[in-house]
TrEMBL record, chain A:
It comes from Nocardioides aquaticus. Residues 1-199 form the Carboxyltransferase domain. The keyword Lyase does not apply. The gene is ybgJ. This is Carboxyltransferase domain-containing protein. The lineage of its organism: Bacteria, Bacillati, Actinomycetota, Actinomycetes, Propionibacteriales. The keyword Zinc does not apply. Keywords: ATP-binding, Hydrolase, Nucleotide-binding.
């Protein structure tokens, strides 16, 4: 773990892996909720977990040195065992435009790509990019693929994609460079719902293949 | 009913307060007034809570009609303020009678003025804030002619002070204090940010100010993992044209952050006009 200066209001805590970042952010949350971290929550404006780092921002008027002192006391908390709690099911039509490319990049057949995507439990590691967009970390690395060389100017809402070690679902239409496997009708983001995001850090997800007929046939 | 009827908006007029807290976990950033100090000042002069919602007006052009007797203040970029055609000036509390019209002209310097009203704008919050976030598409849509803005109840007495000095920026070159960023080693030479002048691009908005200059050269093109970002961060995309993040910056980003402007100077950054020149001065955090 390495703590880097990030202006005069924040520090960037760098960790080796996404899992370590998730565990460290969970440890910070535990500390803030405990007697030992008393007052700490009032010192922080925002905690932003990401791929291999956690950005910790001080509240207005709180010297960043106070935040550094708090961080020294964080003990990473390993994520809970993967068999606890509910799993959010995401019904998916696997007719994405990049399914064939993903197959060739991974050396799998298209059917094997779908089987691998539906056959593991994913967990939201962190959010970003857009409201309600969660970066999902899986259990095996067969589906690790680079982003597309040329991002699309518009990816439709509900598109299910892959990039790096992550899978994700576009909550709204936006530009994007992920490799598209398919799509879901599940509404992932709704400001009139509480909570508005279905994919929040820690939520476990399984993709369910609901057949490709709806979209007029696969890749 | 106590309120304001919007008659004209100029290029862009948005409702803003001090933004949304603690929602990075679901990909929602802070947003809020681009010049937070100007919003706070306007509210203080009106006896409002300092984060009460107001109108952020880009380069003037806003005209509103009072539907009741109201106290208002305009702060931020010093725009000419007319009450029924008569100049009343900015950075001072003004009484507007029901039926009167208040107009903001184009400020001589700066970019964003704030029209606050005693009692604050009563705009339904989205995720805890009335702010419009242009990147996330949250909050009330940009104002349009004909819109009604309701006004809340005053929270306390009017303060004795009714005016404040306008900002001192003269519209010329600006130097912002900054700390070296976590990825300053991802460009061949970060020094030009502090030694050369950078011109603010027309392609700037509430997400960030784009800086045109000599260009910064990345040391390699390996993708960085996505990481949290914050207001004031200077991010360098592959083109080498730095972006200084403002109120509606993304929650996470994947390009190197080579500098971070100190918080006290970010409001000034939000007032930089396209064509104006800026450079950084290094300080330690």
């Amino acid at each position: 773990m390495r703590v880097r200066a990030y202006g005069d209001r924040a520090v960037l805590v760098e960790l080796a892996t996404t899992q370590e970042a998730v565990d460290w952010a969970a440890g910070l949350e535990t500390l803030l909720g405990s007697a030992a971290g008393a007052g700490g929550a009032e010192q922080l404006e925002q905690v932003v977990p990401a791929a291999r780092s956690v950005l910790v921002v001080a509240r207005d008027g709180v010297p960043v040195v106070e935040v550094r002192r708090l961080l020294d006391r964080v003990e990473p908390r390993p994520a809970a065992a993967s068999d606890e709690g509910d799993v959010l099911e995401v019904p998916t039509v696997y007719d994405g435009e990049d399914l064939a490319d993903v197959a060739s990049l991974t050396g799998l057949t298209e059917e094997q790509v779908v089987a691998a995507h539906t056959g593991q439990t994913w967990r939201v590691a962190f959010a970003g990019f857009a409201p309600g967009f969660g970066y999902l970390l899986g259990e095996d690395d067969r589906l690790h693929v680079p982003r597309r060389d040329e991002p699309r100017t518009r990816v439709p809402e509900g598109s299910v994609g892959l990039a790096g070690a992550y899978s994700g679902v576009y909550p709204t239409a936006s530009p994007g460079g992920w490799q598209l496997l398919g799509r879901t009708d599940l509404v992932l983001w709704d400001v009139d719902r509480d909570p508005p995001a279905l994919l929040r850090p820690g939520v476990r997800v399984r993709f369910v293949d609901v057949g490709g007929a709806a979209g007029g046939g696969g890749a | 009913m106590s309120g304001l009827r919007v008659r004209a908006t100029g290029p862009l007029a948005l409702v803003e307060d001090l933004g949304r807290r603690g929602l990075a976990g679901v990909g929602v950033g802070r947003s809020g007034a681009a010049d937070r100090g100007a919003l706070r000042l306007a509210n203080r002069l009106l006896g409002n809570p300092e984060g009460a919602a107001a109108v952020e007006v880009l380069l003037g052009g806003l005209e509103v009609e009072a539907l009741a007797d109201l106290d208002v203040v305009v702060t931020g970029a010093p725009a000419p303020v007319l009450l029924d055609g008569r100049p009343v000036g900015s950075h001072a509390r003004t009484r507007v009678a029901a039926g009167s019209r208040l107009t903001l002209g184009v400020p001589g310097t700066g970019l964003r003025s704030y029209l606050a009203v005693r009692g604050g704008l009563d705009v339904p919050p989205v995720l805890g804030s009335a702010s419009h976030d242009v990147l996330a598409g949250l909050g009330r849509a940009p104002l349009a002619a004909g819109d009604l803005l309701e006004v809340g109840e005053p929270a306390g007495p009017l303060p004795a002070t009714h005016a404040a000095p306008p900002p001192g920026d003269d519209g010329r070159d600006v130097v912002l204090r900054a700390v070296l960023g976590p990825h300053e080693d991802r460009v061949v030479d970060v020094a030009p940010l502090a030694t050369g002048w950078w011109e603010v691009s027309e392609r700037s908005n509430r997400v960030g100010a784009r800086l045109q200059g000599e260009g910064l050269v990345a040391t390699d093109d390996e993708q960085l993992p996505s990481e949290g970002t914050w207001r004031g961060a200077v991010q360098v995309p592959p083109g080498g044209e730095p972006v200084l993040f403002l109120a509606d910056h993304p929650v996470t980003g994947g390009y190197p952050v080579v500098a971070v402007v100190v918080d006290a100077d970010v409001d000034r950054a939000a007032q930089l006009r396209p064509g104006q020149r800026v450079r950084l001065r290094w300080v330690t955090a």
